[in-house]
Amino acid sequence: MPETRLPGGFVNAVVRAGDTVRRRPGPRAAFVHELLALFERRGWPGAPRFRGFDERGREILGFVPGHVAWEEHQPDGVTSDRSLARVAELVREFHDLTAGTPLAGAEEVVCHNDLSPKNTVYRDEHGAGLRPVAIIDWDLAAPGRRIHDVAHVCWQYAGLGPGAADAPRRVRLICDAYGLADRRGVVAAVLWWQDRCRRGIEAEAAAGAPHAVRLRAAGVVEQVRAAHDWVAAHRADLERALR
Ligand SMILES: Nc1ncnc2c1ncn2[C@@H]1O[C@H](COP(=O)(O)OP(=O)(O)O)[C@@H](O)[C@H]1O
Ligand SMILES: [Mg+2]
């Protein structure tokens, strides 16, 4: 079967073969595959199906048709309030599906830990514009707290950083759509993620990891630092909107 390289990957070389995707399994692949199997058993359509391994040891995932928002500039539908709210609802759905399962262990839920438009498939199913329908790239999924994923959604989908438009209102919209009861730690969790992300790229690049070296060369370390400083400077406004 012919294979075509899929654009928008930041770590792995991902290819499409027919209605499947092939990618190198991540370090916690067994956990991820159990998670995807749980979603399939529960009939949740918001993640790709896991279909085993191919002859080259790559994981086989169902291809999710649609638009993956990996480029910097995106159509209005992707950045709309409706899409923002729907992403938050999707996150709520898989959090609730994993709460209380052995996969969540002693934690609240299973977190995705890399929620962003570049890991989201959008489709225009009702003629009203692109809306998120599925989340891909579950390599970093692990037991965690709801607020950690919600904060990552705030950072990545509301574009928290220099130039963010309407940030306090959009952060509130995300927390409302998710139904997050206690929002007091959201902004602190955004800052934690940004700090961790920058340090992670720096450390991995220093150790020679190719994807981290590429990100550093593309100026991502400075971008994430600027985003962190922006959130720190606007912390009071953001927290007021979440009260
Ligand atoms: N199941 C899937 N269905 C459709 N496209 C996919 C799927 N998995 C990956 N892709 C495409 O491949 C790209 C890279 O995949 P991803 O899993 O995000 O890899 P990486 O870990 O390198 O970021 C995505 O941006 C998307 O365009
Ligand atoms: Mg990805």
TrEMBL record:
InterPro entries: Aminoglycoside_PTrfase (IPR002575), Kinase-like_dom_sf (IPR011009). It comes from Nonomuraea zeae. It comes from the Bacteria. Residues 106-167 form the Aminoglycoside phosphotransferase domain. Gene3D superfamilies: 3.90.1200.10. SUPFAM superfamilies: Protein kinase-like (PK-like). This is Trifolitoxin immunity protein.
